[in-house]
Specification:
The protein has ten helices and 18 strands. The chain is of the alpha+beta class and 392 residues long. The protein folds into two domains: 145 residues, Creatine Amidinohydrolase, Chain A, domain 1, CATH 3.40.350; 240 residues, Creatinase/methionine aminopeptidase superfamily (Creatine Amidinohydrolase, Alpha-Beta Complex). A six-stranded mixed β-sheet has the order 4-3-2-1-5-6, with helices on both faces. The chain has a four-stranded mixed β-sheet with strand order 8-9-12-18, covered by helices on one side. Strand 3, helix 3 and strand 4 form a beta-alpha-beta unit. Helix 7 packs across helix 8 and helix 9 runs antiparallel to helix 10. The longest helix is centred in the middle third of the chain and has 23 residues. The radius of gyration is 24 Å and the shape is elongated. The mean pLDDT is 95.
Amino acid sequence: MKYSVNFEKMEQAIQYLNQQEIDLWLIVTSEGSDPCLNLVTGVKTVGPGAFVLTRTGEKLVLCSSIDAQDIEESGLFQEVIKYTTSLADPLKEVVRRFQPKKIALNYSEDEHLADGLTVGRFRWLKETLKGDFSGEFVSSQSFLSRLRSIKTDREVDTIYRAIRLTHEIYDSVISQLKVGLSEKQVGQLFVDEMERHHVVNGIDRALSMPIVLKERIAHRSPSDAVIEPGDLLIMDFSIDIDGYVSDIARTVYFLKEGEKEAPSHVNRAFTTIYEAITKAAEGLKPGVTGYQVDEIARAHLTTNGYPEITHATGHQIGRDVHDGGVLLGPKWARYGSSPYGQVEEGMVFTLEPTLFTDQGLQFIVEENVLVTQDGAEFLTERQKELILIPAI
């Protein structure tokens, strides 16, 4: 069924509404403006519309007549209320019908994926309902973040399919790597593979190049820099399958002529990264906070004489490569409250304790793991040793 995941997510949302004693969740949107729509409903409105879920299980949509067909055909909603001139009147009628004391709206100070209601729409909503609603508006962030974070079995299966194909593409690209290629040429190998498998990049949902870096480590597009013997090459790649993504990074070493293995300092750096991922995975279990997992990986690198990680150890993946919610990160102001969140069963994280040194060593090894009742389960095939590209 096309909308089976959306049905599951709406039932999950209703469960959370009951847990938090919220009477009604109201998603006001236009042109598919709210980022939660793909996750929750799978449909959108072009004109102004409102999606309504109640704690007693009702699922309604208010939309213009021209937007109604796809929504009705989805089979997700018990009632599709069509208007001709204005959303205001049918919205007021729905609020009067359910007489909610608490209405959840999608606004948030520090979680962009739960901040889909614009200031203008919020002002319009307050003005529209001022004579019909005397209760409390509350943020949906607390349950919407959980809704994104805690995956159903169908969601996990789809993420796993994306991961499997990402590995297949990596295998093909790595088999074609050689000295003399530019970052852009390696990036094009990924594009060719995506085109062959009829998938797109999970970052921008386009046939675009992933991150391919031999120098100037940053979130940037591949450059014309040419790979030379003795280089380390970072590749950070994601694909989208049916709206869910993978996120896997690999680092390879290009052997110099006469070398049979990488220099000892390169091997030691890789081993330290591998151990940091292992230790973080062992500490990732229901009930811990994000910053506690980050501290494990961060401490392992510094104890071994390497610099502190410059970003979070891991983030959630799902509908997006950075799927919000709990972050496996340090207690830095830039991360807001996300590192303080509690890990729960069903969350899917990356683990990527990266290493950048002043001597030019750079490693990103990124794995994807599922939080189970007993701990972390690797969904990726781990990079257990440094990938070596032979000299020609």
